[in-house]
């Protein structure tokens, strides 16, 4: 019986969170840890020490990093790779911060004027692992929701909507704030918002949330769900889906359910994927290809 | 020679600013004052004293108030009048906070789910004074930009876009903040933003402002003008103008020039009106009609 040998450490390092995985040669996760150690909490010269600490816990192994850690605010400002781009394109441009030992996966730039850092690993991993089709449309909701059009297993093009960030700005800082303290969940109010947001004018629909509360035509407790529906509907509307389209959504259960509901309102179907599975599948293949 | 007799005091009282006018019987402004005494700076029981102080400066005369002073946060929560509504409809529903002496003009509610307080006076005044046609489209830009469709001199319907507020949120609190410190003026960047915003997805276009700065395809100093163009273009796009439409814009020179530029990008023409003239013309007629 062959012993499973730990092969490398994969780190998904964003602005506010970090996940590290001990991954064996076959791509299986042996251990995982999640910490609030986003790069914004790490001093400029603190990245090597952070990775050393992770190695002290998970093993003295090569490490492959992805996400905003490869930006100007991170460990090194790694040049973007342009779309179309696949596993091999990323592998050919990994950036070695510690030669042969610690690499950062580059982000992607779409010539239409968009950028991503980190989500490319999930998108390519989802397809490479057979979780999503090689020519489908994938969506990764969040603060900045990413939509990727895949072609032949590569990311052909992508775009970003600042859906989650806009919701946070409205809830925390706007004149709507008093009306957005309610729970956000799929339901009548959310779907009414999504239907309006698909085609309507976003800035008009947002103002009318306050008007509806003042006029008593929508309860304040429903307003946050409606507002989320408007923003996610606007986001889905921007994707200009064909009727009956199937979208593979990489998200947790909560956001995944909201996007599935908005996509249903738009006449599209949803397949939900787990982001950790997709990330590990992607970074394992990038690591193998970069070592080849 | 007939002496001109001061007839009443007109007060345009918003959340953060207040303007008071001493207006004669013919509707001419004899004196005017502007103060930062928006209603948010006045305690709930302080409105009568504020008006008494204005009377001590402008004369012991009847006062007619309009704006957010008639909201739940103001002196009294005056019920909205529903559209369609004209001068006589507002005059019939002025709310007397001091019988025969101090009145508040009601705001308007559009059954489609929108509200305004204060702008209705300018819109109706602009038409009544012959500054705008009785069946035109009027626009009053600002924190919350108002669009009013006039019919036979009344406000037939209206809608609001939170254009100015969204720009402030993005500049002050968003991940775009670092890119939005530049000057906003009409020019190539503003018009490119307006053209994109007319039809594009707002939340995608906003994210790409940051991407363009990172990719070096737009200078950071042009980004604020571009962002303003996107938001105002989105606002204008929501108005669904017919080709060659003429829009009467009630605004100061700076905002008026920006809206005129975005309207030009949309193929529409602009006539700019002064908001003080429109306000005084409107409130003078409401006062005369309420006294009739």
Quick structural overview:
Chain A has 292 residues and is an alpha/beta fold. In chain A, 39% of the residues lie in helices and 24% in strands.
Describe this structure in words.
Two copies of one chain form a homodimer. The two termini of chain A are 26 Å apart. Helices cover 39% and strands 24% of the residues of chain A. Chain A is an alpha/beta fold. The mean pLDDT of chain A is 95. In chain A, helix 5 (188-199) packs across helix 8 (253-265). Chain A has nine helices and 14 strands. Chain A is globular, with a radius of gyration of 20 Å. Chain A has a six-stranded mixed beta sheet with strand order 3-2-1-4-7-6, sandwiched between helices. Chains A and B meet through strand 12, helix 4, helix 6 and helix 7 of A and strand 12, helix 4, helix 6 and helix 7 of B.
Notable characteristics:
292 residues; homodimer; alpha/beta; globular
Shape of chain A: globular
Gyration radius over CA of chain A: 20 Å
Q: Supply the helix-strand structural class of chain A.
A: alpha/beta
Note the run of SSEs of chain A as H and E.
Answer: EEEHEEHEEEEHEEEHHHHEHEH
For this structure, the quaternary state is homodimer
The number of helical elements of chain A comes to: 9
Distance between the termini of chain A: 26 Å
Spatially, the strands of the biggest sheet of chain A line up as 3-2-1-4-7-6
Strand content of chain A: 15-25%
Q: Quote the average pLDDT of chain A.
A: 95
* Main pleated-sheet profile of chain A: 6 strands, mixed
Question: Biggest interface between protein chains, with counts per chain?
Answer: A-B, 38 and 38 residues
């Amino acid at each position: 019986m062959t012993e499973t040998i730990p092969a490398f450490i994969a780190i998904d390092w964003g602005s506010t969170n970090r996940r590290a995985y001990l991954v064996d040669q076959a791509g299986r996760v042996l251990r995982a840890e999640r910490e609030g150690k986003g790069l914004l909490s790490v001093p400029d010269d603190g990245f090597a020490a952070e990775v050393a600490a992770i190695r002290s816990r998970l093993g003295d192994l090569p490490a492959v990093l992805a996400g905003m850690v490869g930006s100007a605010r991170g460990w090194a400002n790694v040049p973007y790779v342009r779309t179309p781009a696949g596993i091999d394109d990323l592998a050919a441009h990994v950036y070695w911060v510690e030669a042969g030992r610690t690499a950062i996966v580059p982000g992607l730039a779409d010539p239409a004027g968009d950028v991503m850092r980190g989500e490319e690993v999930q998108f390519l991993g989802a397809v490479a692992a057979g979780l999503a089709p090689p020519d489908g449309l994938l969506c990764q909701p969040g603060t900045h929701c990413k939509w990727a059009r895949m072609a032949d297993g590569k990311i052909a093009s992508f775009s970003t909507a600042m859906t989650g960030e806009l919701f946070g700005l409205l809830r925390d800082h706007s004149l709507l704030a008093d009306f957005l303290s309610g729970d956000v969940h799929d339901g009548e109010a959310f779907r009414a918002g999504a239907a309006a947001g698909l085609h309507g004018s976003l800035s008009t629909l947002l103002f009318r949330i306050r008007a509806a509360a003042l006029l008593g035509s929508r309860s304040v407790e429903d307003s946050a769900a409606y507002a989320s529906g408007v923003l996610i509907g606007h986001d889905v509307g921007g994707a200009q889906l064909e009727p009956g389209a199937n979208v593979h959504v990489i998200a947790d259960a909560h956001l995944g359910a909201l996007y599935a509901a908005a996509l249903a309102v738009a006449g599209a179907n949803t397949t939900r994927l787990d982001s950790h599975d997709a990330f590990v599948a992607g970074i394992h293949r990038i690591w193998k290809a970069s070592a080849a």
